[in-house]
Amino acid sequence: MHRVYMDANATTPLAPEVFAAMHPWFTEQFGNASSIHFHGQRARAAVERARDQVARLLGCRPAEVVFTSGGTEGDNLALAGVLTPGDHLITSSIEHHAVLHTAERLQERGIDVTFLPIDGSGAVDPGDVRRALRPNTQLISVMMANNEIGTLQPVTEIGVIAREADVYFHTDAVQAVGKVPIDVKAIDCDLLTISGHKFHGSQGTGALYIRRGTHPLPLLFGGPQERQRRAGTENLPGIVGLGQAAEMAQAFVAGSGPARIAALRDRLEQGILSRVDESGVYGAASPRVPNTTNLWFDHLEGEALVIALDLKGLAVSGGSACMSGATEPSHVLTAMGVLPERARASLRFSLDTAATNSDVDFAIDLVPAAIAHLRELSPTYNRATKHEPAASGIIR
Ligand SMILES: Cc1ncc(COP(=O)(O)O)c(C=O)c1O
Fold first, then answer.
1. What residue segments make up the domains of the chain, in order of their start?
2. 165, 231, 322, 369: the active-site residue
3. Residue 393: predicted pLDDT
4. pLDDT in the model for residue 341
């Protein structure tokens, strides 16, 4: 069966170049980067080369990069490492669960947390961040790009607020890498999370940028690896792959790739919305990463549509991938004020860097037909009424 993958925000395929870079480090070039003999020193050099590559991607010093097991660990380390009982955390209600659930856990341990509300635009209001500051605020954590609707958050403005208030600033940039430029100095953040498998590295790899002078308490204790910031023998092949993926992501963003993907995404959006009535797109009024669109279609269940499309060869998501299988409406859409029926009827398309025009044509052919079919079964869809798509095809 012809299959098209439009779920890059869930995970991306390992790039062949990344696989080639990793391969020898599984076999003949093995070594423990802490050993002082030849094998160890060769492994150490490979880890440090990867650290340089990640540092170039983020615009920081190599010593400010700590390798982790992925986005979840980076977010946990940033929050749990900086906050102690009595502190106050400001975060948003549209963060990934790696931040939200960590914040909830910290609340149980005596940390005050403000979950900032969000409006229909899908972006945090920096004014809300400023108004939420308290004398005991220790950390602000607001993501760079939302995984479900792709909205870019005003991290540069929040960085200024954090600096003026002398408060630490963490941003989860997991969904920003390889889509928009990242520069920790421009954002003026103290901590920034990335995850390898979202930009063609391997699953179970990632890094946390920790600004010099910031000393989060480690989550893992043991050996002195990562300058005592993250104990445990380094994942050598994974780290080498992360470095290669970082170099490629940086080159992709610097070139014409993002504009090409944005044009494909816009054509996909228009192509579907102009053929389907009672539909719209979330977050279109805000700046978004180029590869993501989240559409709503009334009178159907998003999960049913995901399954129907999968049976025809199109892989998309009905919400956050980490949530698939759950029937609860998305917390992001709920936070934006979307009613549960509509929140359950949403579909996220997230294009990979290799997406083509013919992939988009495939989806434009398939999605309206699958929706029409599912709506035939819907008790609420009035087939007698002639439904017209919105004039622009986009309802903000
Ligand atoms: C915004 C965001 N943060 C964190 C994570 C967790 O990353 P990982 O899968 O590497 O643990 C994800 C994964 O979907 C994400 O989208």
1. 4-11+256-384, 16-253
2. 322
3. 36
4. 86
CA distance 342 to 302: 9
User: How far, in Å, from the CA of 388 to the mean position of ligand 1?
Assistant: 38
276 C-alpha to center of ligand 1: Å?
31
Class of domain 4-11+256-384: alpha beta
| 348 touches ligand 1 (CB under 6 Å) | no
Mean pLDDT of the chain: 94
**Residue type at 342?**
R
Kindly state the percentage of the chain with pLDDT values over 70: 94
Q: Please state, in angstroms and rounded to a whole number, the distance separating the CA atoms of residues 111 and 113.
A: 6
- Give dist(CA 49, CA 321) in Å, integer: 32
For ligand 1, say whether the CB of 346 is within 6 Å of any of its atoms: no
- pLDDT score of 321: 41
Sheet arrangement for strand 279-281: 279-281, 292-297, 346-350
Cα(321) to centroid(ligand 1), Å: 9
Does the active-site annotation cover 60? no
* Ligand 1 touching residue 96 (CB < 6 A): yes
Fold that domain 16-253 belongs to in CATH: Aspartate Aminotransferase; domain 2 (3.40.640)
Q: What tens digit of pLDDT does each residue of 4-58 get?
A: 999 999 999 999 999 999 999 999 999 999 999 999 999 999 999 999 999 999 9
